[in-house]
């Protein structure tokens, strides 16, 4: 797969722009956890990726949950006595509570008021409201839709990339994750890669639960994973560790962020947020972290109409993709090697490996010293206080000189 | 047993006043490690508690020690040539060296001087001096007395509460501990409790050694314990960890203090102080910490007549009792549970457990996520950064919804 | 062996002066990794120590390396057209690149210039340059020389002290290490000692590799060790941990430095520096740290003619020796004891061990409390926050009172 450039960060401009354009196309669609808006969005993604579309019938039991009925909407409004559309779905699909039942009724403002939601501090913003799991008997049975892409690698072990794609016209949460996952999948599909990759474009919560319930046989293969969400805003990048806390993905993401020069924070797992809640439930406890910028629920635009095309920036999207890409690149390259000459240092000079005592030679010495079977390259980079890429290059030179041999990967 | 109120701290005023009144009654008695003063004190406690009084004959071998002879005193004084009582036991029992042998002799001031102890910096304070284990052949054989109260609980495992009750007219050290232990025992005896409780009112050092030597069969039952001493002064509260360092009692006391809003310090075990020296000797290594305010020996009033009824405060006594009570309450409630729906989150909404994302729901999610058999509720509270009581309430709601089941306690 | 005085540090003046005088004698000799200069230096050391001189023939394979040819030099110069010696080996042996091949040739300045090395920032200093492992076919076969001294102790387990002795007229690097090791060996040879000691005076890198390759059978006996280098300058003392990181030598050196009152730093192992590179290679991973002052390569005088007799100070040399000596003394004395009276405290008073509660009695209590078979005296000193010597004295008193017994040493 594509690795980072020499400065460790790919120029984010071009890819950021591509992601932004995809988001612009997806933005107007009225998505929900089920229904045609979600399907239409998957069709757009299929123009970029050979996405398999899965349909799971309403009523299917998935662990403790039941796949809900389908929600489709053509129009909705509140008219005044003069027939003017005061609240109009056509102006913003956020004007309607998601998954709400059809109603046609004349009522007084007093009767209407309990059904109205506003943001006192931002009178011109529309809050995003849903009633997913309330009784909504008037909806029709149908199915829950999700998109899945599997890219086989040299190994059966998988990296799982998951993003929720169920929100209507909201950009950061989570067309940003959808766009970045799409671009990432395109990149990976074009290059050789060691791990197999699985991308999920799913409705939040119920989608992750549904996928896990239908794919328990695949779970043992998941070695690393990331939930991608909220990656287009201008806040610093947040990496939330997996429940395991020191999984390879946690160490890789931390290393990449710490060497990125970008503002960031690394936080411990907690059981709220995005779909890591499901992937990291104790019955699965997958090595999946979550990458975002501003964490969910921490910014005023969150779940409002202000999370729009102006709120996200192409450069931030591109930068976020770079971080994901680098962390995956690190996981792809991370191995444990054995020093074939463990007693004393080998004579580097006679192999042309010794120049003067600079960073490159120090990396050679670190790799030789710690390649005892119990340190992988990332361990060595951390102990040496060096970039992973320096250590990786040193290992490659030593392998070439037959001073190092990769441990077989089980 | 009684738990803390909603603010986490019981109002200390009423119980503090009761403890103080008991101390007022005990204060004038001339106690020592043996003798009638100690017995008389136990009789007063028996008016509050069904205390068993144990008598261990002088000369009994207890590990490396021997139960000493009995010390009883009726009167003592130093008269001048005019017959005036210049130093008078009737004014303060501290005027006589504890466990000293009877003497009636006329001597010069020069001869007397080596037997006089004063505090140069506090000329009006009387230092508390003893000669417990010196040769005192003129004393009579008798017995060592201690009080013991056993309150059986649902389980055979015990919590041991120990306080030394051998000091004469000294309030903080340790009528404060005696008073608090008495009130605590009253509270516990009135309520259902999971653990069995054992209260020891013993002479310091020799009493703990005697009890341990005579009760080796009971020691395997001791699961947690506390030494109570010096709890009425106005310094911040000190919790001294058990020798184990991270026993449940250590974690419980730390959690309660950290959430108490009270000034406190938590210090590591060291092998001097009160009777934790014996309980935490390497041959026993019991999970017993020590709760005090100013640690022993660190304040000028320590072991002087200034440690009097003015030095201790009812509110401080009550506050100290609250901390002990809350820590025990936490231990009583602390359990490990299993999430019965470990694969993905359960649907809280359909069980009426989901409101909005507030502290209560977060506690539900934390308990579900970490109830994998290897985290007890206190672990969860610590990881979640929440009060134990919030986590405990969440667990109760989840048990009620059959989403959680306690692990059997061996 | 000699221990520290009461203040924990031996007066460094006398021994420092002796070391300095030895360095003065060694300074003019033109040493290299092989050759007569090294031999002549060993002969001087033999006047102080019964050093065994080992000769290993050129061409001998030692792990990945080959013992090089021998380098001997009588004279070298660059004359100008007038026959004046502009660059003169007789003025400083640093004027010649170490291990360079003989040449007699007339050339222009332009032809000569690539063979000249200068220090732009210190025009009057001569840089120390070598060409050890380049092709130097014009040299003669011979042997590599090193000095070895084995001082058998009560136990077969060894402490290995290693210093490189191959540099020409350079004082801090490393006549300082040579001098200190010599004086230390003299001290140890005069006193009883538990461990066996082995001193190596070797050429850097190739000497350590050669010794390790020829002595693999002795390596299992090496329990602790130190590389001594750069110990005469006026910088703070640096202890570099072994690759193990928390070996006894690491703990001992840290304890001694922390209690020395001297400026110091303790740094983690890294795979460059002195011969710890070889001793701590993963195939050996010996418990060997490195003691120096300014670390190698971090000061301008390093590897230049400015590292001369003025750059090192007798007091600093003496001080460095004291630290080494104390750390070894600590290792000699460090043992694990068993408390023979583990249940409750023993009655110290009846054994004359109890005075008042001072540092000495606290040390008794700490030793008793932690002598459960899993804490050695250094552990106890660390936990108690006391000097090792206090804890050691307490242990001795307790052994004398039969309250403590050393655990057999395997």
Q: Give a short account of the largest sheet of chain A.
A: 8 strands, mixed
Q: Specify Rg of chain A, calculated over alpha carbons.
A: 24 Å
Total beta strands of chain A: 15
Task: For the record, give the distance between the C-alpha atoms at the N and C termini of chain A, rounded to a whole number.
Answer: 22 Å
What is the number of helical segments of chain A per DSSP (H or I, 4+ residues)?
A: 11
The CATH top-level class label of the largest domain in chain A: Alpha Beta
Q: In percent, how helical is the residue content of chain A?
A: 25-40%
- Please state the overall shape of chain A, judged from the principal axes of the Cα atoms: elongated
Order of helical and strand elements of chain A:
HHEEEEEHEEHEHEEHEHEHEHEHHE
Total individual domains of chain A: 2
| Strand fraction of chain A | 15-25%
CATH topology of the largest domain in chain A: Aminopeptidase
Largest interface: B-C, 23 and 20 residues
Identify the quaternary structure here. homotrimer
Give the gist of this structure.
By secondary structure, chain A is of the alpha/beta class. The first copy, chain A, has helices at residues 13-26, 36-46, 109-112, 171-189, 206-214, 248-258, 276-279, 314-333, 359-370, 377-384, 388-400; strands at residues 52-57, 61-62, 65-66, 77-79, 85-88, 143-151, 158-164, 196-202, 222-228, 237-240, 264-267, 288-292, 336-339, 372-376, 404-406.
């Amino acid at each position: 797969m594509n690795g980072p450039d020499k400065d460790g960060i790919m120029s984010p401009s071009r890819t950021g722009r591509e992601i932004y354009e995809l988001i612009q196309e997806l933005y107007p669609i009225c998505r929900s956890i089920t229904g045609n808006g979600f399907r239409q969005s998957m069709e757009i993604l299929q123009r970029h990726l050979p996405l398999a579309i899965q349909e799971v019938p309403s009523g299917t039991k998935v662990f403790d949950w039941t796949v809900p009925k389908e929600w489709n909407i053509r129009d909705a409004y509140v008219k005044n006595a003069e027939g003017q559309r005061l609240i109009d779905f056509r102006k913003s699909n956020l004007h309607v509570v998601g998954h709400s039942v059809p109603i046609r009724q004349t009522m007084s403002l007093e009767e209407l008021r309990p059904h109205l939601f506003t943001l006192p501090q931002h009178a011109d913003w529309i809050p995003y409201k849903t009633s997913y799991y309330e009784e909504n008997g008037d909806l029709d049975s149908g199915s829950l839709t999700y998109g899945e892409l599997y890219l086989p690698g040299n190994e059966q072990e998988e990296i799982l990339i998951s993003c929720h794609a169920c929100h209507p016209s909201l950009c950061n949460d989570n067309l940003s994750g959808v766009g970045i996952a799409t671009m990432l999948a395109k990149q990976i599909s074009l290059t050789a890669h060691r791990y197999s990759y699985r991308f999920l474009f799913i409705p939040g919560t119920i989608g992750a639960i549904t996928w896990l319930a239908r794919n328990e046989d695949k779970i043992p293969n998941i070695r690393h994973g990331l939930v991608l969400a909220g990656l287009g805003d201008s806040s610093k990048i947040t990496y939330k560790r997996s429940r395991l806390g020191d999984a390879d993905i946690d160490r890789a993401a931390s290393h990449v962020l710490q060497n990125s020069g970008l503002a960031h924070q690394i936080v411990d797992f907690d059981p709220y947020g995005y779909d890591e809640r499901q992937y990291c439930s104790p019955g699965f406890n997958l090595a999946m972290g979550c990458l975002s910028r501003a964490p969910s629920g921490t910014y005023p635009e969150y779940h409002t109409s202000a999370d729009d095309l102006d709120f996200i920036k192409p450069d931030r999207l591109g930068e976020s993709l770079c971080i994901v890409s680098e962390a995956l690149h690190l996981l792809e390259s991370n191995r444990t090697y054995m020093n074939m000459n463990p007693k004393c240092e080998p004579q580097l000079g006679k192999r042309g490996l010794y120049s003067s005592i600079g960073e490159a030679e120090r990396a050679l010495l670190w790799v030789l010293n710690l390649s005892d079977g119990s340190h992988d390259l990332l361990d060595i980079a951390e102990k040496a206080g060096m970039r992973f890429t320096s250590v990786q290059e040193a290992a490659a030179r030593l392998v070439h000189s037959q001073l190092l041999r990769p441990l077989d990967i089980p």
